[in-house]
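ARCHIVE RECORD
Type: protein–small molecule complex
Small molecule: adenosine-5'-diphosphate
Source of inputs: curated submission
Record status: active
Notes field left blank by submitter.
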Amino acid sequence: MATYLILLGAPGAGKGTQAERLSQTLKVPHISSGNIFRENLKNQTELGQVANRYISEGHLVPDDITIAMIKERLERPDCARGALLDGFPRTPAQAESLESILAQKGARLEVVLYIKVPQETLIHRLSGRWMCRAENHVFHEEFNPPQIAGVCDYDGSELFQREDDQKETVTERIRVYLEQTAPLINHYRQKGLLVEVDGNQSIDEVTEALMAVLSVGANR
Ligand code: ADP
Ligand code: ADP
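STRUCTURE (tokenized, with ligand):
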């Protein structure tokens, strides 16, 4: 049986950090819509250039573009046994499309893991976030520092700070999250798919909490 899961939470909640760890344990690909957009920008594709107009303002990339991109990604063979979605869906229309994409594959969502973090924590996390150029590994200058400043522990590539992690853009991204994405919490709660995990603890503790949810699910 294929395992499709969603990590839901505000920008800075820890989705990417946890997704890297969980995807290794669950042996399903980590699909981050933000990373796919950034890779397209790095490769100077048309999609990357269009998406960047929205990303740099802290706005969402329009649904039709985002949905087509994720649909294509989920149709690749490595997603046949499942996927861990990070940053998608972010709107009710994206959530609906995901249901039909999975239905076409004869699959369904297993669980939505909502990482809950107080708003005041988010800004501190995003302002200290560093990402690696090669493979999007995530660090924090205070909470999860690399061994050598500015260098990725995993692949030795350069670390950089995202332009959209600057304070003004972050404020806009959190506003957009509350307006367009937060309604998905209730949407999935009503469907009985939502499990809430306290994201306001250490990275290891959050991983443990998520693993506990998944092992309960596996024993059901
Ligand atoms: P974060 O990890 O801080 O939540 P992401 O890397 O997931 O940020 O996303 C960065 C930006 O890419 C978003 O602010 C948005 O502009 C765009 N983006 C990512 N995923 C989506 C999506 N599902 N729908 C629309 N825009 C998206
Ligand atoms: P998201 O993908 O939800 O935007 P990230 O996983 O990129 O969030 O995490 C945002 C920043 O906060 C990163 O710098 C990361 O190292 C750090 N971080 C993630 N989880 C925690 C945590 N539980 N405690 C402290 N810092 C964290």
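CURATOR ANNOTATION: Residues 3-218 form a domain with the Rossmann fold fold (CATH 3.40.50.300).
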